[in-house]
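anyone seen this seq b4? input:
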Amino acid sequence: MFDKIAEELKEAREKNGLSLAQVANKSKIDIKFLEAMEQGDFSFLPDLYVRAFVKNFARTVGLNENKIVKKYESAKQGIPYVEEENDYEEIVRRNVRTSKHENQQPIVPKEKRTNQNSKTERKQQVRVTYDAVGGNNPAQNPSDAVKKRNLIIGSFLLGGIFLLAMVYFIFVDKSEQIIVVEKPIEDVIQQNQRYVEENQSAANNEMEVAASDSLILTINAADTSWVKISADKQIADEFVLLPNSQKVLKAQTNFDVTFGNSSAIKLLLNNKPLAFNSKYKSVVTLTIDKDGVKYPSTPTIPR
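predicted toks r here
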């Protein structure tokens, strides 16, 4: 018996050109349950859920969902489904029964009918409509009363919003104003004067430093070379220059220098090339001052 329901559901689906995926999307039923129903299997879930799925499936494919549920109930009980009268016949039957009932008016005594008519007339005379805005008034157009009520409500709302805005701006919104205090012209002049004096002092200090270090010796090493040097007869400093390295030294009057590998050394005095006698991997001792290179007879570098 379930096979007939399954066949009817499947035929309705195919007639409407729907796939199982489309039915699942519209009915929100898992496609595996739709496949089971079309195969005549209605035992995949408890009866409460299956009945709801059958009804939803039938509605989605355009069948009479109530009739399909009745067929499902009959099949579940193992009895054949009896076709009931169609909707048109049921409507006609109900209309006929209603018309007969209306035509058969009960016989009311004359005295009782008179009392009923008088009560009806009194009700019609007393009947008034309640206007939410104006109170009890005779019956009038309901749309006019609604418009009047909406107008009054809108006026109250606008008035309340305006009142709240006034309260906010008067009592709440106290934004701080930015006050710019202008300095007197005398203070501005003094400040500029201090700025000029500070710049001049810094420039003078730079000039004094440049004057105190009148000799700037730059040593460039093409290869590894040991160097011992003393500036202005001070304690000598020893260091090793690696290949392609540079050393910059400053002095007021002179330098006393000894190079371990003089052929790898190039000298610049105040950014000008300085020539001296150098030999391959030989030690050279010399003195450098503003006049150039001098070769002392004995080493003068302090120990």
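Residues 126-136 have pLDDT under 50 and may be disordered. Residues 179-212 form one domain. kinda curious what u guys think
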